[in-house]
Amino acid sequence: MLVRRIHVPEPWQGEDGIDREAWPYTIPAVAEIADKGLEFRRPVTFLVGENGSGKSTIVEAMAEAYDIDPRGGRGRIQRRRDPGDKSVLGRDIELEPTALGAKYAANRKLKSRSYFLRAETAFDFIEFISSSDIIIPGYWQDDLRVRSHGEGYMTVLRTILGEPGLYLLDEPESALSFASCLQMVGLLHDAGRAGAQIICATHSPVLAATPGADIVEVGEHGIRRPAWDELEVVDHWKRFLAVPDKYLRHIVDA
Ligand SMILES: Nc1ncnc2c1ncn2[C@@H]1O[C@H](COP(=O)(O)OP(=O)(O)O)[C@@H](O)[C@H]1O
Ligand SMILES: [Mg+2]
Questions:
Q1: From ligand 2's centre to the CA of 50, what distance in Å?
Q2: What is the DSSP code string of 100-152?
Q3: Cα-to-centroid distance, 149 and ligand 1 (Å)
Q4: Which domains does the chain have, with CATH numbers?
């Protein structure tokens, strides 16, 4: 593991303190990070929660704080950003490294083994890399555009997760079929074992079932760590799949 905790240093202090009345500190999970920090306990951590609960805000801020391009991509391509370009939380949070993380942070080559994959931009990014004449070390070279979105995506994931580093993924399941999600569980699990640290926002009960992963549920309550089968999303899926009509009769007139 590379990052053991995130926190907001001295959030209570005077004029330089954070504004709790303003976004993003109005998000309960972000307010809790400001109060108590958030520990990472396992190589693979899932952030689970409803739309708007703050998953992307947290993952993006971590990418910014680690100098990974928040539009998605590798640390290495990224010029050092002006602090003014960062989001409020990206500027405010501090990543507490493990001993290994401190070693990575001090070494450009090691630090560049980091990646931020966001669902919305992944496809553009695949196109950019595939159509580019530049050979970017560390990126796959075959033309991914000729493959389906899902296959291209799996290739990206397999390539980038192959070496130890910090990987921030925002809803990586959006392009994936059920079977591909299962494959991805295998990838995440193996990557975690091989020294990668993955922090992944997801709505997928399949991904969240990755053995040995830590599940952090964000929501109105702030932050909690339920077991997989106590997750709201798991409960909804189980009940929906058992009797879809129970949900749908509230949505559509029969
Ligand atoms: N730049 C921004 N300024 C103000 N509010 C924002 C900004 N970005 C996101 N939000 C709001 O913050 C909340 C959390 O958003 P987000 O982190 O994207 O949630 P999630 O990824 O869990 O769906 C939402 O209510 C969203 O509308
Ligand atoms: Mg999001």
A1: 9
A2: HHHHHHT-HHHHTSEEEEEHHHHHHHHHHHHH-SS--TTS--S-GGGS-HHHH
A3: 26
A4: 3-226 (3.40.50.300)
